[in-house]
Amino acid sequence: xxxxxxxxxxxxxxxxxxxxxxxxxxxxxxxxxxxxxxxxxxxxxxxxxxxxxxxxxxxxxxxxxxxxxxxxxxxxxxxxxxxxxxxxxxxxxxxxxxxxxxxxxxxxxxxxxxxxxxxxxxxxxxxxxxxxxxxxxxxxxxxxxxxxxxxxxxxxxxxxxxxxxxxxxxxxxxxxxxxxxxxxxxxxxxxxxxxxxxxxxxxxxxxxxxxxxxxxxxxxxxxxxxxx
Length: 228
Ligand SMILES: [Zn+2]
Description:
By secondary structure, the protein is α+β, with helices and mostly antiparallel strands. 32% of the residues lie in helices and 16% in strands.
């Protein structure tokens, strides 16, 4: 073969290999906000027909029990398998964010609930994502004492080298002492949750009525963020 042809074929092969996403990467990457319709629960109608039973009343959902991978949940989550993957990615974000503030990730995630076959409280014509096992209400985190020699930030108050709990209802608006550190952590987590469109499509926090004490996170087929 002509030498120029050989060079051209090699260059083309390299370009194609780099340009095409590897299958494993595609499978590992959760659906992004711009591919609404691809997530397994997207096809279920969220607006309810008057008088009709909820989907979770009509048929048994295939949910899994989940207690966390990077941190333990204070009680078992009952979620759709696709939502479990979102929770696992969320845990990575929590550990990253917490490590910058406290020098370690939390030992436990405190939540107020996952699956609950019900309508939206404020919009009863709409199905709650909790009805599909497609949502979680995160109330806070519990941290174990920092390991001896762990790289905690120099500015970390001494009390936060030991065991402590961070809760939205107590620390979202805190301004002094350890509470101010918790506030900074919770606010950064809220901001990063909004920025990470591949994690949750709906991110609600204290700015949304009825959410002073938790982040509501779900993968509904629409996007709403209201945290600050
Ligand atoms: Zn909720």
